[in-house]
Design brief:
Layout (H helix, E strand, L loop, with lengths): L23 E2 L2 E2 L4 H9 L1 E2 L2 E2 L11 E4 L8 E7 L4 E8 L2 E8 L3 E3 L1
Antiparallel strand pairs: 1-2, 3-4, 5-6, 5-9, 6-7, 7-8
């Protein structure tokens, strides 16, 4: 459903049964792209949005990208929520644990 946030009255939607809230910036209604909403609906199972499958797994070797560890190969030893990983890599002949964001790794 598409509405004109500037000219239409949208606040009554907040009292609709089943509506938890609307995406807003302060008092201004924010609009989402249709493709974003379709993507959420495609992942919905019985009213719950399922998190996409993670592309990595514990024990997998990855290459670190960016920063001081750029190019090093490491092994994933722990996966946390919010796309944070703990990897084990070799530096100066010692095993070193490094916490990285999933965006800063790629498969080997």
């Amino acid at each position: 459903m598409r509405i004109d946030a500037e000219s239409e009255r949208w606040r009554p939607i907040l009292s609709t049964l089943g509506v938890r809230g609307l995406v807003r910036c302060g008092d201004r209604l924010s609009l989402l792209e249709d493709s974003f909403v379709r993507g959420l609906r495609a992942r919905e199972i019985e009213g719950v949005i399922e998190r996409p499958a993670r592309p990595y797994s514990v024990g997998q070797e990855v290459r670190l990208a960016g920063g001081a560890f750029d190019g090093l190969v490491a092994t994933i030893i722990e996966m946390r929520e919010r796309d944070r990983l703990t990897v084990l890599t070799q530096m100066l002949n010692q095993a070193v644990k490094v916490k990285v964001d999933e965006r800063h790794i790629s498969p080997v």
